[in-house]
Design brief:
The complex is a heterodimer of chains A (115) and B (116). Chain A is mostly beta strands. Helices cover 0% and strands 50% of the residues of chain A. Chain B is built from no helices and eleven strands. In chain B, 37% of the residues are buried.
Chain lengths: 115, 116
């Protein structure tokens, strides 16, 4: 029979605009979070990480914001480019001092950049 | 830095056949992870090793799956016998685990397995 695939939330932005991808987590004890980018046919690629003792961290064109009060994580991409089109995953270690074996991945958000 | 290297990139096999997936982690990394990705279930951790020792294999679907890490630079994931429902992309990832905190996993480009 026909299978039903996982329908990813999609964010469509115009080239040059800023993108914001959001992620919610449930374990208040999580202390380490990572954002990954996955292009078609490739493995997840590390973008940026943040520890729970920080609420903001910046990289090249990317910023991660962590709000522990509402258990929310976001990835901001400045001046979005066509090469940013991909699926973005947030991941968190489940529990304080938890092993990386407890890394839990979100379902992903598909970013589509319109030229 | 060569990154995590997986082989083969694609594998097509018939139901009942044995499949062996291979992984070379990044040199110097002491943790290795095997993940499976499907549209239905997303990324699932199958097993991971620290310093070549399996730590948690609770994600391994069943006894048909086995993984080994004979040394710090090589790991295999074996499926015997394979079934159509094993069709997925299998990723290997490695990281440098440190006492002072976690570090990000670095993924290979995966092996796309199709079992007919």
């Amino acid at each position: 029979g026909e299978s039903v695939g996982l329908h990813l939330p999609t964010l469509s932005v115009q080239e040059g605009d800023n993108s914001i991808i959001n992620c919610a987590y449930s374990n208040s004890a999580s202390d380490y979070f990572i954002w990954y980018k996955q292009e078609s046919g490739k493995g997840p690629q590390f973008i940026i990480d943040i520890r729970s003792n920080m609420d903001k961290r910046q990289g090249q064109r990317v910023t991660v914001l962590l709000n522990k009060t509402v258990k929310h994580l976001s990835l901001q991409i400045a001046a979005t480019q066509p090469g940013d089109s991909a699926v973005y995953f947030c991941a968190g270690v489940g529990g304080y001092g938890g092993s990386q074996g407890n890394l839990i991945f979100g379902k992903g958000t598909k970013l589509s950049v319109k030229p | 830095d060569a990154g995590v290297i997986q082989s083969p990139r694609h594998e097509v096999t018939e139901m009942g056949q044995e499949v062996t997936l291979r992984c070379k982690p990044i040199s110097g990394h002491n943790s290795l992870f095997w993940y499976r990705q499907t549209m239905m279930r997303g990324l699932e951790l199958l097993i991971y090793f620290n310093n070549n020792v399996p730590i948690d294999d609770s994600g391994m679907p069943e006894d048909r799956f086995s993984a080994k890490m004979p040394n710090a630079s090589f790991s295999t994931l074996k499926i015997q016998p394979s079934e159509p429902r094993d069709s997925a992309v299998y990723f290997c990832a490695s990281s440098q685990w440190r006492m002072e905190g976690n570090s990000p996993l670095h993924f290979g480009n995966g092996t796309r397995l199709t079992v007919t």
